Amino acid sequence: MRRLIALWVLWFALFAPATMRTQQAPSAPAPAPQTSPAKSPTPQESSSTQGNPDVQVWVNTNSGVYHCPNTRWYGATKSGVYMKQTEAQQKGYRPAYHRVCK
Is the pTM of this model over 0.70? Predict the structure, then answer.
């Protein structure tokens, strides 16, 4: 039995790295993105990407995601805190499902 285990370990040590290398082969370089003149965000675009700054959100401190009122996980995750949406964004938390609270 020990020989069988030793042979299996030896086989895995010899052949597993080779299969890992073939799976992690470098891909072709990505094409360079087209540059366009930089636009300054208009106040309308800014508010649509940041949402209502005064909304109180529930921040899941484990995942780093905040949830809007009247959504499934608002106040329902095991660990979290309430704070204003602007404070959550400033601290680096991201909105759940990539949707800011309106």
Answer: no
Which residue's entry shows tokens 């991201």?
94
Dump the DSSP string for 11-30.
HHHHHHHHHHHHHTPPPPPP
The tens place of each residue's pLDDT in the chain, 102 residues long, gives 888 888 878 767 777 665 555 555 556 666 666 765 555 554 444 445 678 889 999 999 999 999 999 999 999 999 999 999 999 999 999 999 999 999
Residues in a beta bridge with 56? 84
The single-letter DSSP state of residue 42 is P
Tokens of 8: 């299996």
**Contacting residues for 86 by C-beta, under 8 A, at least 6 apart:** 50, 53, 54
